Amino acid sequence: MSSRNHFLQVHELLESDRFVLSHKSDIVVQGDKFVWRYHELALEELVEAEFILLEQDAEFDLIAVEISEDSSSSLLSESKNLWSLLFMDGEDPFSVAGKARQLLDWYKTHRFCGECGSKTIHHGSERALVCEPCNKHYFPRINPCAIMLVHRGPQMLLAQSSRIKTGFYSCLAGFVEIGETPEETVKREVMEEVGIEVHNIRYFKSQSWPFPSQLMLAYFAEYKSGDITPDPSEIEDAAWFDIDNLPKMPGANVSVAGELIHHFIESVKQENFE
Ligand SMILES: [Zn+2]
């Protein structure tokens, strides 16, 4: 691994570099293609652009580029939001573009110190922005969230969000609050959102989720007591579902919510649910 800086200027780019381009929060694509080669960039249009090193590989380095909002670059004929990349083939487009989007967002929102308002500068060797007067370092942040599938015997509790109207029923989820363990978040969120007490909370797996910068920690939680009482500010509808009578749900291979649900369905089919 070379000691290349995390922040680059146009004259520091290499012909072997590859690029993920972002414009107005979208990712620049051409059909299924979203990674661009050096010779495909119109470099004269990117003199003012910010380049952030994303990944280093034996063959090439991957670099995220923010193209200015008013750019008339010829590359901008097509761009897609991150959501639509979720459904592109393979796991890579989404995770690479998600990482690019999160780093560029972090960079954009930390150009000034939150404490004294001075302009931040690039750290010499780390991916961090620095306020010199305060001697403060700003690193990219992620926000942990707990997502949980509540089950009662062979039934699972699925809910429709009242904020994001997709028509899908899915798992409950919420941000881990300061001072909380994710297991405590599971208990609190389920109580707040649907008025149910859960226990026997088991960790399942995790997923990076760039909407905007979340780390999803997925759990199964067993019903203990209470009746479903949705909080209307969060939940449009919530109900117990049998696996042979399911609503419109997220796919198994896109989000960890879908994986939780489909893992539970499989375990009910094999009758080894608890
Ligand atoms: Zn400062």
Walk me through what this model shows.
The chain is α+β, with helices and mostly antiparallel strands and 274 residues long. It contains 4 helices and 16 strands. The chain has 3 domains: 101 residues, Alpha-Beta Complex (Nucleoside Triphosphate Pyrophosphohydrolase), CATH 3.90.79.20; 31 residues, Ubiquitin Ligase Nedd4, Chain: W (Single Sheet), CATH 2.20.70; 127 residues, Alpha-Beta Complex (Nucleoside Triphosphate Pyrophosphohydrolase). The strands form 3 sheets. Strands 1, 2, 3, 4, 5, 6 and 7 form a 7-stranded mixed beta sheet that branches. Bound molecules: zinc ion.
Overall number of strands: 16
What characteristic shape results from the CA principal axes? elongated
List bound small molecules. Answer: zinc ion
Q: Which spans have pLDDT < 50 for at least 5 consecutive residues? A: none
Secondary structural class: alpha+beta
CATH class of the largest domain: Alpha Beta
CATH topology group of the largest domain = Nucleoside Triphosphate Pyrophosphohydrolase
Oligomerization state of this entry?
single chain
Question: What is this entry, summarized?
Answer:
The chain has 274 residues and is of the alpha+beta class. 18% of the residues lie in helices and 33% in strands.
Topology of this structure?
Elements: E1 7-8, E2 18-23, E3 26-28, E4 35-37, E5 50-56, E6 61-67, E7 79-80, H1 82-86, H2 92-109, E8 121-122, E9 129-131, E10 136-138, E11 143-152, E12 155-161, E13 172-175, H3 182-194, E14 197-209, E15 214-225, E16 235-241, H4 256-269
Parallel strand pairs: 2-6, 11-15
Antiparallel strand pairs: 1-5, 2-3, 2-4, 3-7, 5-6, 8-9, 9-10, 11-12, 11-13, 12-16, 14-15
Zinc ion binds next to loops.
